[in-house]
Design a protein that fits this description.
about 400 residues, alpha/beta, Rossmann fold, two-stranded antiparallel sheet, 12 helices, 15 strands, globular, AB_hydrolase_lip/est
């Protein structure tokens, strides 16, 4: 993956200091940089116990209590399954220096060893999208899992300079600027989301991509009318997946939305609106019922899930927290979390535990197992094997288990 992922959380953190204003003077920027330097100096020079509470918890208030429940094993396996799709998405689109990646090819072949996983033996690539127009657009692909009877829409995370620019555009736009609400068949959608403010960069990617992707989605949905729809994505892709999920939901679809390492997408009003769509009953957030349609997967010490932490940004509910630093993930360390900012889950981790940039880079790309990348010098090295090895033939489950250092077979 593009090294931009390593800095994504820190781009967000520095965002409120570096954002330019229309009439900002050079000395204003200097003052902002000086503030950052002073903050870093204070952090590195002071014992943790001497720091004031406001600096100990800049990500927002930590609730003193919260409710969690151990996630069932079948849900853990299902989440890992969708994480594999997200890992493969980094083979799609433009990367650093506008280099075109090797892509995912029909039937479902790529330079990520996961494409050869037997779980994907009946998976078919239907459509990949990147560079839809000259604007910032979504990157990813649509696949059909003929074994599970699912259409899976996958959005890639930050990998290019354009992606990073979208991440930095943390200004908020109103609900009327979000085409997913504006063009909804639900005439009450805009009024139901009264007071909603949404991340401008994420909305821009959605608005610039929606029509083209939705037309393909409608085509393949008509070809496979009994297939269930899954929308998933990692990081920036998780944010875009959430917006697509909201749009599909208010237009009469019933998608399953699964995000990994998703940043905060909007303010409290927007988060509550999302909850009203996916969790009409609060207790559903601890349920693994088939009727549950939202899983926001976070993990220990992933800073991206806690940003932006200014301007009233808030996470939606549906958190599934991996309470473990190392990979592979042990299923018993995965829990459901009640509410939007549960202090027993990702929101309860002190900010100073995010201080190791190299560690955070690996954490953000390591949900259940570390993403193998997509070959070439810009990807992460998988556990064992050749980084650029093509995956045109099926890898036996036992071999894949060993190469990804998984504690159990992937053939479930």
């Amino acid at each position: 993956m593009y090294n931009g992922i390593a800095w994504e959380g820190y781009i967000y953190i520095l965002g409120p200091f570096l954002k330019t204003r229309q009439h900002q003077k050079p000395q204003d920027t200097i003052m902002r940089l000086a503030t950052i330097a002073s903050f870093v100096g204070l952090v590195t020079a002071s014992p943790i116990g001497l720091l004031p509470p406001a600096l100990l918890n800049p990500f927002g208030p930590k609730k003193p209590d919260g409710t969690v429940a151990t996630a069932p094993l079948d849900v853990v396996h299902e989440m890992e399954h969708y994480w594999k799709y997200c890992s493969v998405s980094y083979c799609v689109g433009m990367g650093k220096n506008n280099q075109l990646y090797s892509q995912v090819k029909s039937p479902f072949v790529c330079n990520n060893i996961l494409c050869a996983d037997q779980e994907f033996s009946q998976t078919e690539l239907l459509y990949s999208f990147y560079g839809i127009n000259e604007h910032q657009t979504a990157n990813g692909y649509l696949a059909a899992d003929h074994k599970r009877k699912q259409l899976i829409l996958v959005f890639r995370g930050t990998q290019s300079e354009a992606d990073s620019a979208a991440d930095l555009n943390t200004w908020q736009v109103s609900n009327v600027d979000f085409d997913g609400l504006k063009n909804s068949t639900d005439t009450n959608a805009e009024s139901d989301c009264h007071g909603c403010s949404i991340h401008a960069g994420f909305v821009g990617i959605f608005n610039n991509s929606f029509k083209q992707i939705d037309s393909r989605l409608n085509l393949y949905k008509s070809m496979y009318p009994d297939y269930k729809l899954v929308v998933t994505g990692h990081s920036l892709g998780g944010a875009v997946a959430l917006l697509y999920g909201v749009s599909l939901r208010i237009n009469g679809r019933d998608p399953l939305v699964v995000t990994f390492g998703q940043p905060r997408v909007g303010n409290a009003a927007f988060a509550s609106y999302v909850d009203s769509l996916f969790f009409p009953t609060a207790g559903d957030q601890l349920s693994s019922s088939p009727y549950r349609k939202m899983y926001r997967v976070t993990r220990y010490e992933d800073p991206v899930t806690q940003v932006p932490f200014w301007d009233g940004y808030t996470q939606q509910s549906g958190e599934v927290f991996i309470n473990q630093f190392n990979v592979p993930t042990k299923p018993e360390n995965v829990v459901f979390c009640q509410g939007q900012n549960n202090g027993f889950c990702a929101n309860g981790i002190p900010w100073y535990q995010y201080a190791n940039i190299d560690s955070d880079k690996q954490v953000h790309s390591s949900y259940f197992f570390r993403s193998p990348g997509c070959g070439g010098s810009q990807s992460f090295t998988p556990y064992g094997g050749n980084q650029t090895e093509p995956s045109a033939v099926s890898i036996p489950p036992g071999d894949l288990k060993a190469r990804l250092n998984l504690p159990y077979d992937t053939n479930y």
